[in-house]
């Protein structure tokens, strides 16, 4: 009789103590025990965002999770990013198995569904109690897992002129509300950040705006970058300019998407640069786009209709690139540290070119939920006994069918400490309980005109929104 995976792990000494939460210190991530944590991962949304529907998501089926977590271990990653989840589903088994494999989660709180994302052209039409209930429900569920590394408030919300005028202060409002909820209802600080489009017009200006305080400031900034293509160099790819652009930021920076596909197969030369001395003072790793092959042709694996997974050439080359990295990557001793939160420059400062830097945020429409929580609508996740560690689906790696598909346990979840009820009590820039005045005198100059109009539009509809919200029990 074959020994169970758990027993083998125990006998071999592979499984260590409970998985550690990841925390921020200065402009980098660290484990609770103080070890630098550099994100080495992939973006994971089989079927793509367009296929997302209520009642199913990437972390709700243990057979699918066991298949893909096995592949994550073969790839040698420590983090995945998931773009959309349904908080009404049970994610306990998948999150437990991820934790036991030593893998963390960066999670977007939005979905393509109605009332579950911001309309970036007219954000005041979608920033409403129903949207915030969804956001808070995602936080409520996934804050129960120690391997939830961070939440993303948005992905490429700003990407052209209209959204650059109307959306920035709404992004900050969502960050403020998310942090307000975490401060009051989660017993540890879970970072909240934003994932930025690969556009030179907004790469610096939006980062500077979202970084600054006193409320709604992000904890980290994600960069979606596809500028290193084929055989290239640190300077030739423009990575040197990226490092220069973000060198005076006060928060962690990492690639939320990377991996140009213009030259095939991808050789992943940028991996060596990203985790090398030229970048680790500013960047904290990155997430490769993406795990499964979709219509846009970035996949590392093919997933058949019968559930079989088969590696592509890009998987094998990325596996080699990750395996060649040093086991322990250090934070440079001369890393530049800056005050946090950063002080906001005036709205008309040249640093905010191309965006409307409105420092007056829309008042929260989630006041009651922030105060009381949404535990009556969303059940907090927890680590559980996993029903299966080996998928029923076929796995083919480099042309060979895998026989032993057990996910290896590298850390234990049975020893996980349970957080005390209530929030962590720290001021991290969340909603402070004081609703800003609706008639703030915001300067309507230059690029601020559209954002001021957005606030005016919100005033016009807020009465009916609140009335409906009260009727449905949201407020």
From TrEMBL:
Claim: Nucleotide-binding is one of the keywords in the record: no
* Location(s) in or outside the cell: Cell membrane
As one GO molecular function, the record gives: 1,3-beta-glucanosyltransferase activity
**What keywords does the record list, in alphabetical order?**
Glycoprotein, GPI-anchor, Lipoprotein, Membrane, Signal, Transferase
Q: What class of enzyme is it?
A: transferase
Residue ranges annotated as compositionally biased, kind Gly residues, are 422-432
Q: Which GO terms describe its cellular component?
A: plasma membrane; side of membrane
**InterPro entries registered for this protein in UniProt:** GH, Glucanosyltransferase
Kindly give the Gene3D superfamilies that the UniProt entry links to this protein: Glycosidases (3.20.20.80)
Give the range the annotation lists for the signal sequence.
Answer: 1-17
Q: Which GO terms describe its biological process?
A: fungal-type cell wall (1->3)-beta-D-glucan biosynthetic process; fungal-type cell wall organization
Membrane topology recorded in Swiss-Prot or TrEMBL: Lipid-anchor; GPI-anchor
Annotated spans, Disordered:
416-445
Q: What is its EC number?
A: 2.4.1.-
Q: What family is this?
A: Belongs to the glycosyl hydrolase 72 family.
Q: Which PANTHER family match?
A: 1,3-BETA-GLUCANOSYLTRANSFERASE GAS1, 1,3-BETA-GLUCANOSYLTRANSFERASE GAS4
The function of this protein is: Splits internally a 1,3-beta-glucan molecule and transfers the newly generated reducing end (the donor) to the non-reducing end of another 1,3-beta-glucan molecule (the acceptor) forming a 1,3-beta linkage, resulting in the elongation of 1,3-beta-glucan chains in the cell wall.
Name the record gives this protein: 1,3-beta-glucanosyltransferase
Tell me the organism: Sphaerosporella brunnea
